[in-house]
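Following the same procedure, backbone shapes were mapped to integers, as reproduced here:
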Amino acid sequence: MQQIRSQVTERDGLFELEAGSDVLDSPRYNHDMAPTKVRERTWNKWHITALWVGMSICVPTYTLGGVLTAYFGLTVGEALLAILFANIIVLIPLTLNAFPGTKYGIPFPVLLRSSFGILGSNVPCLIRALVACGWFGIQTMFGGLAIHLFLGSVFEGWKSLGGTGEVIGFMVFWALNLWVVIRGAESIKWLETLSAPLLVAVGIGLLVWAMPNVSMSELMAIPAKRPEGASVYGYFAAGLTAMVGFWATLSLNIPDFSRYAKSQKDQILGQIFGLPLTMFLFASLGVIMTAASVKLVGVTVSDPVSLIGHIQSPVWVAVAMALIIIATLSTNTAANIVSPTNDFQNIAPKVINRTKAVLLTGLVGLVLMGHELLKKLGLIVSDVSLETVYSNWLLGYSSLLGPIAGIMVVDYFLIKKQQLDLAGLYRDDVYPAWNWAGFLAFGVPVVLTLLSLGSDAFSWFYSYGWFTGSALGGIIYYGLCVMRAQPSVVKSAV
């Protein structure tokens, strides 16, 4: 006989839900969104380290140093320091927002029900999902190109397909990503654990190939592309903010992964071991490889897929492309598909299960890259590179997610004091449908950020958008929650 009321039990600081009919029959619940059982939390610190190695070693990370030197006016040394400091800073919201996922076994959308409301959680979820789908499309472009170059190195006739071959590669890689995530969290854990040492080996191999062709002293001595005599602090702070924004998305939905961690210690150590050093070293490799590319292949090449494609040996191209396919797959599945899969399910858990949500994520990503795919097929002619447009838009868009991170941290640690009603997060009778304090705290900094774009006096608010947004969002949310609680406190005192 099925129990009517759900029961919550605690074991070594980890809580799990024995769902009764009050939760099982709720429209806010399905099996994929349910809290993980303690026995299902099998990821230790090395699995989480491998997760971050797998996500960090990717084409966008490789290009970060070049972005900071070309567009933010930093020297190579300043750019690499900005990347290292940014990833140490972003560890703070990553670790803090991972806490409720580990303790209660809940994914990101369910945690948001506490701060934005049972229905209101869908708004920040869909904002996060759209960013992820865009990045999914871009990363799939890189993976599809790697498949095209791999097949071209194995089958001579494949090269003649040109853009059509790239589109075929895109669709193959697209389907492979969806297949991995549909298989579940254990499949992702296996992929990340397998790929991490392979990706480190790729980095070492590229470094060995490049080092004889670059002078580190000359590289570090290249002057910054900023006005002579200009202070470094403003340029460095803007670059730092952009680099924090690189993982701003994951700092929100980290509960999607920490819900599988064995303990808080495992999730903390795994993130410390896996993120800052990997990002720093692979971005450094990108700077070195780009500098060496002129001597290696005769032209400056800023992405590793195209650079390796210039190698004359088909065997080495095939091996390198196979490893890059694994690298991009490990990044894409974890960083860009898991979150929207959970976010789309949150809309209607009884209607949208994991498989449907994964397919919806794939469809949105495909639509966002449709213009670029049609260009490669020769069906349209355009000078606009959507890859560049989406990259710029998504990086700027990510900075607007700062308020959500601040709100989540304040809600869990200061307002709820690390105590959530686990069963109540899956029903309609504990938390409000819409928590307007969350929406006001999110809306004010976003509006100010957008307004600051047209003001020289307040341009700093946009330049440091992640910091200003997360701090202001958290402060406003705390103030609104305290004000809302005051009347009940006064009434009880009387």
User: Anything to note?
Assistant: The CA atoms of residues 153 and 315 lie 7 Å apart. Residues 488-494 have pLDDT under 50 and may be disordered. Residues 314-347 form the longest helix (34 residues).
